[in-house]
Structures are given as structure tokens and as C-alpha cells.
Amino acid sequence: MYSLSETITTADPLAASRYSQSLNNALAQGHGNAEAAQLATNSLYTTLQQQSLLLALKEILGYLLVISIIIAVVSRFIPFHKTLRVTFKRTGDDMV
Known about the structure:
The chain is mostly helical. 67% of the residues lie in helices and 0% in strands.
């Protein structure tokens, strides 16, 4: 089960299980108690940072998609063939 980490509290069972798993892994690797707690906290912080980055990118790309669709629809109805008139001069055989 995945959930956003913005609501991480000590009462949240998912966050508590992630924290205790990271803490136990760090302790099993031979780190001290304080260092293991810091590593477990950094693990939760990294998860929060990744999720917030992905959420921000999703929002920005959503806005860009909406803006590009609006520009495409508006540009579809602009008569470009009537706005730009270029005159061509006819020349003789000297342009061969």
C-alpha cells in the first residue's frame, strides 16, 4: 500500500513500520543507536522528497499540457494563409 508521506506521524502505522524497518536494517549493519535513528529518519525524508518532487513534476506537466492544448486549439482557428501576403515578381528567362 502506497500513501503520500506528507502525513507522516508516529501514530501512522505505515510510517512507523518503514521507520522501524530502516532502523533495524541500520542496526543490523552495525551502526550505533543514534546513527541508526538518523539513517532511518533520512530514509523517510528521502521518500518524502521523492514523492514531493514527482507530485510537483506531475502538476507542472499537467499545466503545460493544458496550455499547449489551448494554444493548439486557438492556433487552429487563426487563418495564417490570409495574414501573410508575399508577392512574387515574374521574371524572364534571365533567372535560369
